Amino acid sequence: MSMTQPVKVTVTGAAGNIAYSLLWRIAAGDVFGKDTPVDLALLEIPAVVEKAEGVAMELRDSALPLVNSITVTDDLKVAFEDASAAFLVGSRPRSKGMERADLLEANGAIFTEQGKAINDYAARDVRVLVVGNPANTNALIAAHSAPDLDNSQFNALMRLDHNRTLGQLAAKTGKATKDFSKIAVWGNHSATQFPDIAFSNAEVDEQWYREEMIPKVAKRGAEIIEVRGSSSAASAASAAVDHMHDWVHGTEDWRTAAVPSDGSYGVDEGLICGFPTICRDGKWEIVQGLELSDFQKERIEASVQELREEREAVAHLLKG
Ligand code: NAX
């Protein structure tokens, strides 16, 4: 197998839970391919950068053949310079008593400065996947802060919601996840999201789908915390790998990606929203021409309305 040039991949929040799984999957070639070496850049905040050094030590100890170099830093320029892909995982968690508006504000600052640094230093064809919550609005802020890049280069992770939907359908029917096609999760990565199976080949009871499956998928993050004692980490990393893999290599079937809206299905242009998409030649295309029922329209509108409210709450960061 002939080796290609190394690609630089930046992972923020490198000392955190998701990164602890994600970095190894990237290093194993699960995103860019088994013939593509990677230069890994691990970004952390100064208080935690030493812990990220420990993660880098373990990566070295794994002697992974595709790892060309590992850089640990709290410097945005060092982290993003010439990066071809960036996983923006690090964000401010909601602390006790913190309002959603405060959370949006604290994260707004992080994603403004990271968007600017990506704008100034990353490769011109960089792909940026925002994982840190509130992911859709953080991605909106980062895209806005990078005026020299196309906003289509900024996505938010909703593949976990997609994969959770597949997992529930497989468990219910006894089929394998790969047996289902044309699944999508519309809207925001939050409890308002709309997992949609209307166009799929899944044959399940409508009442189960509406009353059990939709809330189960939408609240799965909270359920994992309750049962596992900490938030989704390996599944989130796995979904991030799936998203970036498909962005690079393309897809045949539908995938859920939160991408900037082009106005399709009444979603305001620019909002970063979960849609049914297909990826061709490195570009996500929103599946067109779907006839939506009133139920689908209502569910999509409710989640998009939440995205509008989040955008409103950070409007001061989106000026200029
Ligand atoms: P952790 O708290 O374990 O790790 C986050 C790390 O980010 C910390 O080490 C922190 O120091 C670092 N960090 C904070 N600000 C930073 C900055 N400005 N630059 C670089 N690093 C910074 O969280 P983890 O479990 O890894 O989750 C990370 C994020 O993913 C959270 O916001 C979480 O809510 C979000 N999630 C998103 C999901 C999705 O599907 N979109 C699902 C899983 C997860 O809930």
TrEMBL record:
Enzymatic class: oxidoreductase
CDD domains: MDH_chloroplast-like (cd01338)
UniProt GO molecular function: L-malate dehydrogenase (NAD+) activity
Coiled coil location: 290-317
E.C. number: 1.1.1.37
Signal sequence interval, chain numbering: none
Lactate/malate dehydrogenase C-terminal domain mapped to chain residues: 159-316
UniProt cross-references to Gene3D superfamilies, sorted A to Z: Lactate dehydrogenase/glycoside hydrolase, family 4, C-terminal, NAD(P)-binding Rossmann-like Domain
Keyword Coiled coil recorded: yes
SUPFAM superfamilies: LDH C-terminal domain-like (SSF56327), NAD(P)-binding Rossmann-fold domains (SSF51735)
Reactions catalysed, as given in the entry: (S)-malate + NAD(+) = oxaloacetate + NADH + H(+)
Positions annotated to bind NAD(+): 13-19, 107, 114, 131-133
HAMAP family: Malate_dehydrog_2
Protein's name according to its UniProt entry: Malate dehydrogenase
Source organism: Corynebacterium accolens
Gene responsible for this protein: mdh
